[in-house]
């Protein structure tokens, strides 16, 4: 049997299985406007694992359930504006798990349209990027610490290209950061 859009039952089953087994968290909401916004109609296991909520507690709820004090209202306003105008949205903010712990989520949200072009649902593919954000913060902090020392510090990658120099290096070598990055340490000869 082939559905109206040309997708057979077997293909639809494969698609459903692929989304259910996806590494990325997937949430589908309806597009019904309301005081609290769209309601969740589907979540895959990865989303349940990321949020700590079982499927039954998410279905029928609004995604606002995951927001809290550190959720960026500017990001949420941008999200709403994109969705109401039918545009794709990509962004990140802080959400909260069922146990109240925060995590940084990155969303890619797309409107789903019916044959008449009317938005019926939104599909959100999400990732917990908390570890990435933490690593970026540590990297910035280390860079600031290395810049604070007057000792010259230069770091090269395995290909022998300079990927970092601190302020002490700039003072000692006479090369600015922009001039040194991508060069080989032999530029100091």
Please give a quick description of this structure.
The chain has 189 residues and is an alpha+beta fold.
List keywords for this structure.
189 residues; alpha+beta; five-stranded antiparallel beta sheet; two-stranded antiparallel ribbon; 7 helices; 34% helix; 25% strand; elongated
Your description of this structure?
With 189 residues, the protein is an alpha+beta fold. It contains 7 helices and 7 strands; from the N terminus they run αββαααβββαββαα. It has a 5-stranded antiparallel sheet with strand order 2-1-5-4-3, sandwiched between helices.
Tell me the series of helices and strands, N- to C-terminal.
Answer: HEEHHHEEEHEEHH
- Number of DSSP-assigned strands: 7
Q: Helix fraction?
A: 25-40%
Overall form: elongated
> What structural class do helix, strand and pairing data support?
alpha+beta
Tell me the radius of gyration: 24 Å
Q: Summarize the main sheet.
A: 5 strands, antiparallel
Q: State the helix count.
A: 7
Q: Order of strands side by side in the largest beta sheet?
A: 2-1-5-4-3
Q: Would you tell me the overall average pLDDT?
A: 88
Strand content: 15-25%
- Span between termini: 74 Å
Unreliable stretches (pLDDT < 50, length at least 5) are: none
Secondary-structure map:
Layout: H1 9-20, E1 25-30, E2 40-43, H2 45-51, H3 55-58, H4 73-84, E3 89-96, E4 102-113, E5 119-128, H5 130-148, E6 154-156, E7 162-165, H6 167-173, H7 177-180
